[in-house]
């Protein structure tokens, strides 16, 4: 391998999911070792991130993620089972 990169990856993040095919291409096309550094979901690391009044942000992420997934030809389904118990309408994360 020519080099290596560390990727901080959350299995709940739609953006980590969308980057997955590119990470494989880096490994195969450029002979780079990709070291996955699995991190806890932001709902665990910073539950206040999903504070009330920030619903527009969540809706934007959902739209953006779906658009990008369609562009890449990837399905855009939420993880099942979801590793976090969260009300996706209110964004409240269970304690």
Describe this structure in words.
By secondary structure, the chain is of the alpha+beta class. The chain is built from three helices and two strands. It has a two-stranded parallel sheet. Strand 1 (3-9), helix 1 (14-30) and strand 2 (32-38) form a beta-alpha-beta unit. It is globular and about 45 Å long. The mean pLDDT is 85.
SS content category: alpha+beta
Ends apart, CA distance between termini: 43 Å
Along the chain, the helix and strand elements come as EHEHH
C-alpha geometry: globular
Q: What percent strand?
A: 5-15%
Percentage of residues assigned to helices: 40-55%
Strand order of the largest sheet: 1-2
Mean model confidence by pLDDT? 85
Low-confidence stretches: none
Please tally the β strands and state the result.
2
Task: Characterize the biggest β-sheet.
Answer: 2 strands, parallel
Radius of gyration: 15 Å
Tally the helices.
Answer: 3
């Amino acid at each position: 391998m020519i080099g290596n990169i560390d990727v901080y990856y959350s299995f709940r993040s739609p953006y980590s999911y969308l980057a997955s095919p590119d990470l494989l291409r880096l490994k195969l096309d450029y002979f780079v070792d990709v070291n996955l550094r699995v991190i806890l979901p932001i709902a665990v690391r910073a539950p206040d991130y999903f504070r009330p009044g920030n619903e527009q942000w969540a809706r934007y992420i959902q739209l953006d993620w779906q658009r990008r997934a369609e562009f890449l030809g990837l399905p855009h389904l939420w993880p099942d089972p979801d590793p976090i118990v969260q009300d996706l309408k209110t964004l409240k994360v269970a304690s």
